[in-house]
């Protein structure tokens, strides 16, 4: 089944550039959150699943997978880009989506 994009955006912080993508695939609502910071150890890459939990927690985002900062393909220091592109985050996005498919399906 083809993924349905809900939204994606790039946001600039004081020392970082963040990528967020929300999409639906195979009955799952997923969120990708990738941050490129000036310092490699402050970078992160997560994929989350929205859960309408029926326990005491209620609805919440749950981490499906993460890429350790030392294994990220997204370069550090992207906040200095004059015209940041979604392509800058593409490799980590692909890894997170592929892993989520294996875990959730």
Helical run tally: 1
Biggest sheet, open or closed, and with what strands and sense?
A: 5 strands, antiparallel
Mean pLDDT: 93
> What is the string of SSEs from the N terminus onward?
EEEEEH
- Give the CA-CA distance, first to last residue: 11 Å
- Rg is 14 Å
Fraction of helical residues: 10-25%
- Which spans of ≥5 residues are poorly predicted at pLDDT below 50? none
List the strand order in the largest sheet.
1-2-3-4-5
How many beta-strand segments? 5
Explain this structure to me?
The protein is mainly β and 105 residues long. It has one domain (4-104). Helix content is 14%, strand content 43%. It is built from 1 helix and 5 strands, in the order E-E-E-E-E-H. It has a 5-stranded antiparallel sheet. Strand 1 and strand 2 form a beta hairpin. The longest helix is centred in the last third of the chain and has 15 residues, at 90-104. The termini are close together. The mean pLDDT is 93.
